[in-house]
Write a structure and sequence with these properties.
Elements lengths: L7 E7 L7 E6 L3 H4 L5 H8 L3 E4 L11 H8 L4 E8 L8 E8 L7 H35 L1 H8 L8 E13 L2 H4 L5 H20 L4 E6 L2 E8 L4 H28 L7 E17 L2 E7 L1 H10 L1 H5 L3 E4 H4 L6 E9 L2 E10 L5
Parallel strand pairs: 9-11
Antiparallel strand pairs: 1-2, 3-4, 4-5, 6-8, 6-9, 7-8, 9-10, 11-13, 12-13
């Protein structure tokens, strides 16, 4: 089936008698997608036909389609393909069902009659799976895997949510606004995608979740409870250090092509936040709010002042299990209490 996903062009399920069942996601740019034009499915789509049959034993299609040559090499004798269209309201076009036999003489008339009855039922099942999977996949892409799971579990009422403790990671691209006066919008979007990709990768590999892209900033959380606060802080810190290192590598590669250096400032904080649905009646955002989020945002403004690319709040620095260096106490706009600010000890970083 084709898929609606920013990374995958389609998904296939392969069943082999006596072997394992495999599910494969075909990434954009992968061999599976690039070679799609060399398949019987593409042939039928191009001719506007919904079914086809190739007598592999007689060599039909073997020279035209690598897949049929592979089946022939494995003893295949007959190959069927049926294209079933989904309802028009579905964004997905439909599903292709293929069946290969190694029976001498290929499929019998009785077997073909069974297949003719079976394929429509399979198509209906595929439609149900596709609709459910597409909804879950797209929701996860736009809200994050953990947040989407909560939404699909029914947490969709405005104001519904609760207080949680979390390590907060706020990453902001340094002096990015100035680039908009030099580069075209398409180039700017490309730069953002490159940096957001590496930030997202290192957040997710440490069990964090990105909640929001805000212009050239990223907000992520690492939820925790009272017993695991240090673990969450260490996960957020590992993400931050990996982000900064990967960002240097990315800038080095872009510099070789004559592109700009784009720095990233990261702030780490630990506190209580409200995690839930916020917004208008017909347009909600599942996110975090609270004083801890505001404080993290204000701390980020100090990165340039202190000439530091990684800053930590007192609550974070005293909880994580690494040596930190005190930088001073600072007023934060809109925050009544002065904030003690830390960085990693030079020997640690």
């Amino acid at each position: 089936m084709p898929s609606i996903h920013p990374m995958y062009g389609g998904v296939s399920a392969n069943f082999v008698r006596g072997g394992a069942t495999t599910i494969e996601n075909a990434e954009y740019g992968s061999a599976a997608v690039l070679n799609f034009e060399k398949t019987p499915i593409y042939f039928l789509l191009g001719r506007g036909e919904t079914s086809g049959r190739w007598n592999i034993a007689k060599g039909e299609g073997v020279d035209d389609y690598p897949q049929l040559a592979e089946f022939a090499h494995g003893g295949g004798t007959d190959h069927l393909v049926s294209l079933l269209e989904f309802p028009k309201e579905a964004a997905l076009r439909g599903v292709s069902l293929s069946l290969t036999s190694d029976r001498p003489g290929g499929f019998s008339d009785d077997q073909l009659a069974i297949v003719a009855k079976l394929f429509p039922a399979l198509g209906l099942a595929c439609y149900r799976i596709a609709a459910s999977k597409t909804a879950a996949d797209i929701l996860a892409v736009y809200t994050g895997a953990k947040t989407s799971a909560r939404i699909l579990a029914g947490e969709i009422q405005r104001g519904k949510g609760g207080s949680i403790n979390a390590a907060i990671l706020l990453a902001d691209l340094r002096n990015f606004t100035a680039l908009t006066e030099v580069y075209q919008p398409g180039e700017i979007a490309g730069f953002l995608d490159e940096h957001f990709e590496l930030i997202g990768r290192h957040v997710e590999e440490n069990s964090g979740e990105i909640l929001k892209f805000m212009g050239d900033s990223v907000l992520a959380i690492f939820p925790t409870d009272a017993e695991d606060q240090q673990k969450a802080c260490m996960a957020a810190l590992a993400s931050a250090r990996n982000i900064l290192e990967a960002n240097k590598v990315l800038n080095g590669q872009r510099r070789n092509d004559g592109g700009p250096d784009i720095g990233v400032d990261v702030v780490l904080h630990l506190g209580e936040v409200f995690y839930g649905n916020i917004g208008a009646r017909g347009r909600l955002d599942f996110t975090v709010i609270g004083s801890a989020v505001n404080e993290a945002s204000r701390l980020e403004k100090l990165c340039g002042t202190l000439e530091q690319e990684l800053l930590m709040s007192e609550s974070f620095a005293t909880t994580c299990a690494v040596a930190c260096e005190y930088l001073g106490s600072f007023e934060l706009r809109g925050v009544s209490k002065r904030a003690d600010v830390f960085k990693l000890a030079d020997a640690v970083f």
